[in-house]
Amino acid sequence: MVLPFYVTAFWLQTGLFTMAAAIGAVGLNVLSGTTGQLSLGHAFFLAFGAYGYVWFAGDSGRVGVGHLSGLGLPPLVALVSAVLLTGLVGGLFSPVSGRLRGMYLGVATLALVFIGHHVMLNAKSITGGFDGRSVTPMDIGGFSFTDGDPDGLEILGIPFGRLERLWYFALVLVVVACVTARNLLRGRPGRALGAVRDSEIAAAVMGVPVARYRSAAFVVSSMYAGLAGALIAMIFNRVVPDYFGLLLSIDYLAMIVIGGLGSVTGAVVGAVFVTMLPQILSKYADSLPLVVAPGSPDAGVGPGEAARYLYGAAIVLVLLFAPGGLVGLLRGRPGGDPGGRPLRLGRTKGSIRTGSKEQPQ
């Protein structure tokens, strides 16, 4: 709550990207961590949320030699509409997710990223093509989240511009998203999703409609991604297709693995780690060995590449020594999930689980 009064614009923007990533990571953790469905297409739903908000809130008109379309809805209505539209798209894909498992589902979702990138480049009236499209700033009841407020807003002598205003808006969205996900996972739906992850056969025997819950998990995850994508668009102030690529999907998978699968807190911790690490390396590149600033002619590793090496190594270490992720280490349970239960990966050494019993192999 007090950070906007003390930190610079660089850290405010980094924190905003971290909060957007936390929302998207929580949604992916519901799908992959809790339900056990591998998704490599999270970037597609992030893009859908971002461009959905831009299209719903933007106005139609000519730009250069092209023509951009938009509905001109109030920004808050556009945000809600973008989230609902992304959930609808996730629901349309859910029959595919209901029929595929494991790596096959991952490959199917991976195809969404490439299809989405092609559409973003060619649907120029909506996306602006390769050059992207500017974003309509959020506006709630006449209170605009921009730097150009004619009245000016100062609190305790600190001018509150676009980043400061977006900070508190994003903070509210993160809290609502995390509380909603926590209540979902702690209730009956969360127990059903966990049962589907552990054993679909056992879950079906217990009366859990497996297909329905797998589809619901995809819809919820897509809506979270849509909200995160719309927030990213507001932070960037311009969206371009190249940002929503395969590497972004891999970043989100890294977030939930490093933070802790199946944990809302773990998703947030992983988002902080993966999002802030390249920013910190870029900020202090001159002081770090083997790391060079972006665009520098000196030999070395750029901040982005160095960050991927580091959190790639972190994934390996987490999988080997701390299956509960960083949040498990923080809570003193490196070998279990954040709820204190041992991780159940479907098959244990020397036995096969069927229902609640273990049979010798």
Task: Write structural notes for this entry.
The chain is mainly α. The protein has a domain at 3-244. The chain contains 13 helices and eleven strands. It has helices at 9-34, 42-57, 75-99, 102-122, 124-127, 162-186, 188-198, 200-205, 210-236, 246-259, 264-283, 303-321, 325-330; strands at residues 61-63, 66-68, 133-134, 139-140, 143-144, 154-155, 158-159, 238-239, 347-348, 351-354, 357-360. The strands form five sheets. The protein has a three-stranded antiparallel sheet with strand order 9-10-11, with no helix packed on it. A two-stranded antiparallel ribbon has the order 1-2. Strand 6 (154-155) and strand 7 form a beta hairpin. Helix 1 packs parallel to helix 6 (162-186). The longest helix is centred in the middle third of the chain and has 27 residues, at 210-236. It is globular and about 60 Å long. Mean pLDDT is 85; it is low at 337-361.
Short description:
This protein is mainly alpha-helical.
What is the typical, i.e. mean, pLDDT? 85
Number of helices: 13
Name the poorly predicted regions.
Answer: 337-361
Output the structural class: mainly alpha
Strand order of the largest sheet: 9-10-11
The global form is globular
Radius of gyration: 21 Å
> Termini separation (Å)?
55 Å
Could you spell the SSE succession in H and E letters? HHEEHHHEEEEEHHHHEHHHHEEE
Main beta sheet strand tally, sense and closure: 3 strands, antiparallel
Please tally the β strands and state the result: 11
Helix content: 55-70%
Strand content: 5-15%
